[in-house]
Amino acid sequence: MEHVPSSAEMLGWIETIVSRGVRRPGYPADAWTERWLAERLTGFGLDVSLEPVELTRWQPGAGVLRLDDGAEFTGQPVPFTAPAAGLRGRIATLGEARPGDLVVDELAFTELPQSYVKTLATSAYDPEGVFDTLVQTIPFGPRMMEVVEPALAAGAAGFVGALTGLPWETCDYYVPYDAVERPIPGLWLTGADGRRLLARLPCAGELVVQSVRDRVTSHNVVATLPGNSPHLVIVASHHDGPWASAVEDASGVALVLAAARHWARVPVEARPHNLMFLFTAGHMAHAAGTRAFIERHRSALADVVLEVHLEHAALRCEPVGGRLAPTADPEVRWWFTSRAPRLEGLVAATLEAEGLRRSFVLPPDVFSPMPPTDGAFFHPEGVPLVHFLSAPMYLFDSADTLDKVDVAGLEPLARAAVRIVAGTAGWSPATLRQRRDG
Fold first, then answer.
1. Is 327 exposed, middle or buried (0-12, 13-18, 19+ CB in 10 A)?
2. Per 3-state DSSP, what percentage of the chain is helix, strand, and coil (rounded to 5)?
3. Long-range contacts: 30-34, Cβ < 8 Å, 24+?
4. Per-residue model confidence as pLDDT tens digits over 353-383
5. What DSSP element (H or E) covers 62?
6. Is the CB of residue 236 less than 8 Å from the CB of residue 374?
7. Which DSSP string do the residues of 263-308 spell out, in sequence order?
8. Closest of 203, 338, 249, 257 to residue 48, by C-alpha
9. Nearest 5°: phi and psi at 303?
10. Is the full-model pTM beyond 0.90?
11. Mind listing the pLDDT tens digit for each residue in 266-286?
12. How far is CA 220 from CA 37, 69, 157, 180, 266, in A?
């Protein structure tokens, strides 16, 4: 696969994207990334278009909780919660809350034993034999996006999230990102500040949270190449992220760009199908770009042989002194693959051929009705899919920096994507849709 870019070149693309700053939907850095992608893809020789996506932009300002005893706690506004110029009230834990209180609730990330995931997987590539003992910290608590909902159910006037169960000190947790408006203000506090606050409860004070919500137009970047069949394969990722976000998802962008450049340098007759390379907008606004793409192109979905999503070339980290230190190992790799033995076999063989250790092949609905990816909404449309994703604990945090990118994995991941697409040669949409059992 001489046309696949090197890891160094892909890392250069990631560095370029990250250097623009915070890349939330509708932010200047994200708009710049759209244009940059269009220029790169046009330069590769693809036909490129920008398709508008209307979405909710949420912009936080300052957030502070001031207690009547003089203590003050500065934090990060909880995404998609309401602003508050100065909301006074009783401050209490969720268990002691009364209607109208400012409710404090603690959050701990979920510890996921890979021995359990192994029982759910179609197959695994684990040449080191670590899955029997490895435990992964994933970037969600037990309620996933519904972090504010218990406080709302208790009649709270405001929410304070104490990140006491995270393995490092941060208040930069960009969750929820479902673009659902919560009608009360919310503030994330670091674990240390959360413990200091909890020791003072119940008490009284004032919550100040600045934020602005508005509607803006972002864009899906859509690039196409003709191929050697009348059918279509889509290779996709999202171009926005919660922060400058090297892993989420500048790394996925680099993988899709690498696949696009490879196939652009392959003769038309050697491309297994018509190819589309899709960079969606608004993942951090409930996958707005993916949903808009499906609405706009639903009539074409029946002709899609396979939809490949590539997200998060991530290193596993360990907490050291209140910070996160990258290890030399990749974070556990999930390959959500439609329940078709022919496709599952192709993915499993590819993982071994490319040496992509610490990988699981999983059914798309193993954790929830849809895979936890930006491309999730293709699944209920019946589109066969292979979705690569990892879920490092720092995924939604400003700690997602360049040192967390799995640089050694970039080239084999890109080759894997190419190999999977090439493996669909001769397949039609009916190959994976008519018989899911073989």
1. exposed
2. 30, 30, 35
3. 30/218, 30/239, 30/240, 30/281, 31/218, 33/239, 33/240, 33/253, 34/218, 34/219, 34/221, 34/239, 34/279, 34/281
4. 999 999 999 999 999 999 999 999 999 999 9
5. strand 47-67
6. yes
7. HHTS-GGGSSSEEEEEEES-GGGTSHHHHHHHHHHGGGGGGEEEEE
8. 257
9. -100, 5
10. yes
11. 999 999 999 999 999 999 999
12. 10, 50, 37, 21, 25
* Residues in Cβ contact with 249 at an 8 Å cutoff, skipping those fewer than 6 apart: 237, 238, 239, 240, 241, 283, 311, 312, 374
CA distance 227 to 272: 6
Calculate ∠ Cα 211-252-147, nearest 5°: 40
Burial per residue of 260-274, b for 16 or more beta-carbon CB atoms within 10 angstroms, e otherwise: bbbbbebeeeebbbb
CA pair distance 169, 189, nearest whole angstrom: 9
Q: Which residue has the tokens 């907490």?
A: 319
DSSP-derived letter for residue 327 is E
Q: What is the CA radius of gyration of the chain?
A: 22
**CB crowding 17-56: b at 16 or more within 10 Å, else e:** bbebebbbbbbebbbebbebbbebbeebebebebbebebb
Q: Which domains does the chain have, with CATH numbers?
A: 7-57+215-433 (3.40.630.10), 59-109+142-212 (3.50.30.30)
Q: How far is CA 14 from the centre of its chain?
A: 15
> End-to-end alpha-carbon separation of the chain, Å?
30
